[in-house]
Amino acid sequence: MPHTRTRTALAGVLTLATLALAGCSADDRADGRSPAATSDAGAAGAVGSATSADAVLAPYGLDGLEAVQVVDALEATPLAERPADLTASVRPREVVLDSPAGTATLPLPDDAFYLSLAPYVSATHPCAQHSLTTCRGELGGAEVALTVVDDATGKTLVDDTRTAADNGFVGLWLPRDRELTVRVQVDGRAASTQVTTSDDADTCLTTLQLT
After folding, report:
1. Total Cβ atoms within 10 A of residue 160
2. How many other C-beta atoms can be found within 10 angstroms of the C-beta atom of residue 189?
């Protein structure tokens, strides 16, 4: 099944390649999944910027949500349904929102760093700060086996298989201020790299070429 899904995803590479190349402008989460949306840090930050962020997000039915919820919702949205006039850029400490209604930011929780990765075989694009509405990877819908290891302690933080979203990315919520080794495997091909989750780190990982 993963092999079939990967072939299906690759069939769309030629039509997506141009867009892909131009596409990107809580306690410790030990599994890379979303931190609780009601974490104290996230809730406090959302209150401080709720009015302006809600004005930007209301046309898309995302008003009233905290940053973590907005990130997860947009990342999971099928490409055909992604709003063309909204950009949402994930930075290490906040999500920057821009639409015809204006620009706003939503702070991320103090203890959670978002990293979105897109393994690829033949087509990728340079990316530093992940765009939830425009970034596109090669292998949408592929089954991706993931491991994330804390380099300092040797502890495995993530050991799971995830389905890449329609945009070809897999999002991970990771503890902040760590040096980590990320390994992915898709249909027998693998790649690995080291990343950090510091305040000056990239939130977008598009250099994992599967071999």
Report:
1. 14
2. 14
* Amino acid in position 206: T
Q: Which two structure tokens, joined as six digits, stand for 151?
A: 């380099």
State the Cα–Cα distance between residues 198 and 180, nearest whole angstrom.
11
State the pairing for strand pair 143-150/113-117: unpaired
Chain position carrying tokens 């040797």:
154
**Rounded Cα gap, residues 177 and 175, in angstroms:** 7
- For the chain, the domains span 2-27+112-205, 40-107
Q: Which of 78, 98, 80, 79 is nearest to 88 (CA)?
A: 98
Question: How is domain 2-27+112-205 classified at the architecture level of CATH?
Answer: Sandwich (2.60)
User: How long is the chain?
Assistant: 211
Neighbour-count burial of 94, counting CB atoms closer than 10 A to its CB (0-12 exposed, 13-18 middle, 19+ buried): middle
Residue among 184, 80, 66 nearest 133 (CA): 80
First to last CA, the chain: 19
Q: What is the pLDDT along the chain (211 residues), one digit of tens a residue?
A: 444 444 434 333 333 343 333 356 534 456 788 885 544 444 434 444 444 899 999 999 999 999 999 999 999 999 999 999 999 999 999 999 999 999 999 999 999 999 999 999 999 999 999 999 999 999 999 999 999 999 999 999 999 999 999 999 999 999 999 999 999 999 999 999 999 999 999 999 999 999 9
Residue with tokens 């598009």: 206
